[in-house]
Amino acid sequence: MSSKLRWGVLSTANIGLRKVLPAMQQGENTVVAAIASRDLAKARRAAAELDIPMAYGSYEELLADPNIDAIYNPLPNQFHVPWTIKAAEAGKHVLCEKPISLTVAEAKALLPVRARTGVIICEAFMIRSFPQWLRLRELLAQGRIGELRSVAGVFSYYNTDPANIRNQVECGGGALYDIGCYLIHASRYAFAQEPTRVVGLIERDPQMHVDRLTSALLDFPGGQSIFTCATQLIPYQRVQFFGTKGRIELEIPFNAPIDRPTRLFIDSSGDLTGADITTETFPTADQYTLQGDAFSKAILENGQVPVPVEDSIRNMAVIDAVFRSAASGQWEKP
User: Fold this and answer.
1) What are the pLDDT digits (tens) for 4-17?
2) Quick one: 266 and 159 in the same domain?
3) Domain assignment of residue 214, given as a range
4) What DSSP designation does 109 have?
5) How far apart are CA 60 and CA 62, in angstroms?
6) Contacts of 20 (CB under 8 A, 6+ apart)
7) Whole-angstrom Cα distance, residue 27 to residue 71?
8) Do 138 and 76 fall within a single domain?
9) What's the gap between Cα 276 and its chain centre?
10) CA-based end-to-end distance of the chain
11) Which of 61, 133, 231, 326 makes an SS bond possible with 202, Cβ 3.0 to 4.6 Å?
12) Nearest CA-CA partner of 258 in 293, 290, 306
């Protein structure tokens, strides 16, 4: 294999065209070699726009290309597992957009496929390759805020377009699948534990029936996490990590800007005016470039990907439990 991983992309989804592919093209270990759409004209347009050498009019043709090492799968949520399996069966490694599936059972179906085909499958939580998140884990391990006891997060945007797949139940739309998955992942990452029980509240859009306002409380052995995610609120995102001796706050934790540095705040004094807050600044970077390189490097050097399937299954277990709790009105075990 060459020093770069050769990527093929399933679909001309917006997240790919606008964010992920241009970023991956800047990577040290990545080459975007082909793109496929069910509409050849669309694939050719995208290929021309992004200077991608090959365009295919079907996903199957892309998977059959012997010059492709790995597949990026940004298809709508209900197609994540089926096409990840097809890519694996074709001998391709897969970076699949989050959430990796719509249920735990579906995510678990990837394990025997991975074992049989020997490919690597990774869920695209791009935060796991990003400096401010890696630094958070470092600070927590150093005991910079004492013992982590509480995580609190909010992630919201405003989208009422019924034509948008994020507002379609059959496509796995709604706040919890789309952005709540990040808040759950962030809590599990920080505690380095799994919650033993969760409780969730969901408000659904009366016309579209997707969850538009979801809040949850996750009970970890080491503490608690609370979060709210919403698809019909003012856009906002912030996560805070509270310890016995301090607090860490991540500014713009999930959609890190590519045109300015990102920041992390450490409060060790508890001064409510914020006078003693230390700010750590991280150089401007594109988290999708870093994600592509981290995955490619793991393949090229036989290393570990940031989010293996086992981790994805545990995240899905919490998502499942939040949905169950909202329906039952009870605590649920993931």
Assistant:
1) 999 999 988 777 78
2) yes
3) 131-284+316-328
4) T
5) 5
6) 72, 74, 124, 288, 292
7) 15
8) no
9) 33
10) 40
11) 326
12) 290
